[in-house]
Amino acid sequence: MNELVALTVVGVVYGAVYAITASGLVVTYATSGVFNFAHGAVGMVAAFSYWELSVNHGLPVPLALAIVLLVEAPALGLLVELLFARQLHAASTERSLMVTLGLLLVLVGAASSIWSPESARILPGFFPGYSARVLGVNLTGQEILVVGVAVAVAGALWALLEHTRHGVAMKAIVDDPELLSMAGASHARIARSGWVLGSVLAAIAGILLAPLVTLDITTLTLLVVNGYAAAVVGRLKNLPLTFMGGIALGLLQSYAVGYMPQSWQSWLPGIRTALPMLFLFAVLLVLPHDRIRAVGQAVARRAPRVAGGRESLGWSVGLAAVAIAAGGLLSGIGVVTVSQGFAYGIIALSMVLLTGYAGQVSLAQLTFAGVGAFVAGRLSGGSTWLGILAAVAIAGALGVLVALPAMRLKGLYLALSTLAFAQAATYVFFDSSHVFGTGGALAVGRPGIPGIDVSSGRAELVVLAVAFALCAIGVLALRRSTLGRRLVAMSDSPAACATLGLSQRPLGIAAFGMSAALAGFGGALYGGLQGQVGANDFGLFGSMTLLLLAVIFGVRTVSGALVAGMAFAALPVLQSHVSWMTDLLGVVTGAGVVLVGRMPNGIFGMERPDRRAVRSPAAAARVPEANRHAELAGDHASIS
Amino acid sequence: MRRGRSDRGALYERGLAVVMPGRRPAAEEVTPDAPPGRLTVRGLHAAYGRIEVLHGIDLEVSPGEVLALLGPNGAGKSTLLKACGGRLRPRSGRVLVSGADVTGKGPAALAHLGLCSIPEGRGVFPNLSVRENLLMWTYGGASRSEVEERAFERFPRLAERRNQRAGTLSGGEQQMVAFARALAARPAVLLLDEISMGLAPLVVSELYAVVGDIAAGGTTVVLAEQFVDSALEVATRAAILSQGRLEQTGTPQEMAGAAAASYLGKSG
Amino acid sequence: MQASPEAPGSGPEIALEVEEISVRFGGLQALQDVSLEVPAGTVCGLVGPNGAGKTTLFDVITGLLEPDRGRVRVGGVDVTSLPAHRRAKMGLSRTFQRLELFWSLSAGDNVKVGVEASRARRRGGSAHPDDAAHPESTARMLMDRVGLGDLAEAAVDCLTTGSARLVELARALAVQPRIILLDEPGSGLDSAERAVLADLLRDLAASGTAVLLVEHDVDLVMRTCEHVTVLDFGKVIASGTPHEVRSSPAVQAAYLGSSEASR
Q: Would you say residue A555 has pLDDT above 70?
């Protein structure tokens, strides 16, 4: 009985924090239409800033709180709004997703440069030593505060949204921003207040959560990600449901700690940590379907030119020649880096297939790569081609398994479900000693090629270059095939595809499976190159970074994938020359995405100027949501 | 009956003060003899992307006038109203309100200059209650109680449904909520786009009676309609728009026949 | 096959039958008890003022929108509960008022997706004369048919609205439909393109295809349609030959708004 009460208290306290952060996420999403993946990172930065001020500089608690909550957090919210969001209002889900992911990487990178992850920091709770007996239960000051703040936040949001003109306008802006302007309100100001409020709520949650867990960049960024799960319970708009989702998640997690059978935990030690992800995944799966709708000329995305078969073959031969030459010129570390670049390039090619062609965003590509490496390593140490084949097959099958339920979802929700999958896989699978062995390292060998000694680094470089070239030829050939045309068509207009008799589900599942198989292949080769791999090689942040690099360089082109892979391999090497920043890769990638955020096809997919001169009529219908029923759009619709 | 109608000029100046604090409009922006509330359109070209929809529209509507824009689908009626209401930046040409050039100003700025535009088919926030919708109409300057008083006085049905979500109201009731904005704002210029669309004739007559009253108070009204007869009951002038050009302008009676021809095919 | 009350048994096979469809969007009754039928080999018109519910009806027929009430039958088979892609496989095809092109593909490839989709449909089924041909050449032939033979390589967002509409039309024809729904195919077309369209509609009907046409160009409707249904406020207010419809008082009222006449 006592245990139940104690677990309930802990669950409610955690749930209250999740609810606060989730409500901030919802407020921002509702007023701006942007789902802020960096929401957790904002909370993380706020918690660290608060530590810096109150613990490191010894400022009084109220002053430190005031600076963080009333100055820093609003400023951060405004900055986001100014830098990104203003361009994002009319942007696609895919674009706003990429930009906020970029912001997440920048914040994480900046924070790890300022607050080195090596040294431990302790953020004390509020009212230390205070405790009170409430209904026969001993509660600490921190616990009372957390629940109190959650209740106050709920009350304040209710009062704001139901009883003030500004708050009602924040709801109205979702319905029809233009009508709000016509009524005389500044809808920019209202959207801005949504960002500020969201940012402050993220900060509150971060500061409340840090003393309960540890003041750690990744943990905080990802733990506040748990708020996503709660927000999704409220379908990103319903605040009462969001609060309930937060509490439910907190309780679930707490009861799991108390009541989950020991046997489960010895098998899957990460299962408890992964619970929020599994919860998010489950919630996403029970969400109702989105119906296919004709949205009209929503996005005119001119695709970059697709190279023909002979042309891609020519480039491939060239690439192999360059690799042979480079092998002789580069130093040892250079050879390894370029080889890694080719392996990552293959994983980036899987993103070209899935994101560039089929228009689906997956944050789990490195997870599939990890599965590939694991399978290759487990099967005869990766030194046989059979192991590589198995890696491809099993990664592909896993991709299909993930896609089967997830394909009901589109855009943002699909990306969220792959995020949940990637993170859950890390906790449950990769972190388990059954997978990469004790100490988190699994040996992976290189398959031999008859007549060639692949043991040298230079030979491996050429092998990887050829492997990349073959994959690139394959991806391009796929794009020119019937299936490739269908994937692109489905991503451009699901409604038109449906009326031609093409069903979305099998196509999406095929794209996911092929892409996961390709990532698995890349992962197996990467493993062979490294000799041994561990969970750290295949983390969520890695997936995000590689995806964003691919977006920067052109996720619809194979050359973009190659350069993205090279950058992903090279930036950590450059890091050793940049001592003042500890996460060069994250910061550069994040900032890069923000900079090229306006280029939907990335650097290598840029349109040539002469073609750009003729713009599409689609510009007329840039905001499909505004036209609820095509019929009602009247003159506008009949003209466009 | 309507307070404050006589000092439209003061209203206009108040509107300007909001948009350009501490600054009187420069001389060249104002046509000195333009009466407050006059809407002038000069050489307006507008386009969606590459497709030009309006090919040079000239129009002048004075306070108290009700101009009915008639014409078939795709003629450019809505586009013209959008360009006048700041919802579409014209490719070239000018829009003047009370003689001041307002070309390129956004809808919010125009609202504070005394221009009220009720868009086609979606003049309400469907997920807000009636009262919350009315609260949004206070951005025009009137207080919440004034807005509600004027709306409920004119449309008693709305008072009964004040806490209902606007999206669940009938089409006519939704249009009443939209009209409450015009009643609250007492605008200098009122632009109405297809207010009769999807509504029963009786409701349409009721709404047009309100339009007539608003115009009688000295407001300049421009309305786009397919529903020719009801529109002509309140219109003082009518213009036929066809393929992006103003074809004819005349009395409502003269235009009724011409409109029929343009809708039903010239051979009939 | 259900015989309709209007044409008892005698006329051609009824390819498409819509029975008492009702759709409500919040407070708006978008469609109310709408019934119509399109016999094989005829062009039927669907007209009405803006917002009358024409596109909504198309969405219901093709399966993009679920009606609150009513049935849709294709060749006598009730398809009301089938998803859009299943209906398409039964020979139902359409174009969109607001263009739904594959913007990343060339004009020719847009059509090719349709050609390939229809091949998959017939695989194992009855052989079709076109099956011998390469999809490439079938697509080219269709582009020629809509008068865009020289634009196959063009990116679709470089085309004029009229040409883009014709690409959509060619794509819709690529699946060799038994029934085709065309949503304002004439808007944005120049007069030469309109002439091509009118010929094409007649050819389609002559080859046994059922065509349902939403169009604001009255002349085009008068020239091509055998039968016209008029929608207003989501209800059918008139139905008959173009001339009957044009002289109907209810139609005059719908377009001109005489409140007395519409009762």
A: yes
Is B204 within 8 Å of C257 when comparing Cβ atoms? Answer: yes
Between CA A80 and CA A29 the distance in angstroms is 13
Put simply, whether C241 touches B (Cβ < 8 Å) is no
Identify from C46, C72, C100, C173 which residue to disrupt to test chain A contact, counting A C-beta atoms within 10 A and taking the largest count: C100
Please give the residue of chain A at the shortest CA–CA distance from C110.
Answer: A489
The two three-digit tokens of residue B268, written as one number: 């009939």
The closest alpha carbon to C92, from A498, A489, A631, belongs to A498
Q: Please name the amino acid found at residue A299.
A: V
* Tokens describing residue A489: 């068509």
Q: Indicate the residue type of B176.
A: M
CB atoms C164 and A489 under 8 Å: no
pLDDT of residue A124: 85
Adjacency order of strands within the sheet including C77-78 = C28-39, C14-25, C69-74, C77-78
Q: Are A27 and A194 in contact (CB under 8 A)?
A: yes
What is the rounded CA–CA span in Å between residue C246 and residue C104?
Answer: 42
CATH class of C1-91+183-195+217-263: alpha beta
Q: Is C258 touching A (CB cutoff 8 A)?
A: no
Selection from A606, A94, A146 nearest residue A363 by Cα = A94
Query: Is the pLDDT at A89 greater than 70, yes or no?
Result: no
Contact status, residue C92 vs residue C140, Cβ threshold 8 Å: no
pLDDT digits (tens, 9 = 90+) for A586-609: 888 888 877 766 666 777 766 543
User: A304: which chain C residues are within 8 Å (Cβ-Cβ)?
Assistant: none
- How much of chain A, in percent, has pLDDT values that exceed 70? 86
Q: Map residue B193 onto helix, strand or coil.
A: strand
Does any CB of chain A come closer than 8 Å to the CB of residue B36?
no
Strands C43-47 and C227-232, sheet pairing = parallel
For residue A525, CA distances in Å to A122, A370, A519, A586 come to 41, 11, 10, 24
Read off the pLDDT of residues A356-380 as tens digits, 9 standing for 90 and up.
Answer: 999 888 999 999 999 999 888 888 6
* C-alpha to C-alpha distance for A460 and A568, rounded to whole angstroms: 19
Task: Test A631 with C164 for CB contact under 8 angstroms.
Answer: no
* Distance between CA atoms of residues C14 and C74, nearest Å: 8
Rounded to whole angstroms, how far apart are CA atoms B239 and B250? Answer: 6
Residue C123 has pLDDT above 70, yes or no: no
Q: pLDDT band at C68, cuts 50/70/90?
A: very high
Q: How far apart are CA C85 and CA C96, in angstroms?
A: 16
Percent of chain B clearing pLDDT 70 (strictly above)? 80
pLDDT band at residue B39 under the 50/70/90 scheme: very high
CA distance B93 to chain C (A): 24
Neighbours, chain C (3 or more CB pairs < 8 A): A, B
Point out the residue among A294, A302, A488 whose CB comes nearest to the CB of C100.
A294
Does residue C30 sit at the A interface (CB-CB below 8 Å)?
yes
Tell which residue, C104, C66, B144, has the closest CA to residue A306: C104
- pLDDT of A451 strictly over 80: no
Q: Take residue B9 and report the two structure tokens written for it.
A: 């000029």
Q: Taking residues C43-59, report their average pLDDT.
A: 87
Contacts of B122 in chain A (CB under 8 A): 176, 179, 628, 632
- Name residue A393's beta-bridge partners: none
Q: How many pairs of residues across A and B have Cβ atoms under 8 Å apart?
A: 118
| Domain boundaries of chain C, sorted by first residue | 1-91+183-195+217-263, 99-177
Lowest mean pLDDT among B74-88, B252-266, C96-110: B252-266
| Among C161, C216, C257, beta carbon nearest to B72 | C216
Tens digit of each residue's pLDDT (9 = 90 or more) over A226-259:
888 888 888 878 889 999 999 999 999 889 888 8
**pLDDT higher at B263 or A470:** A470
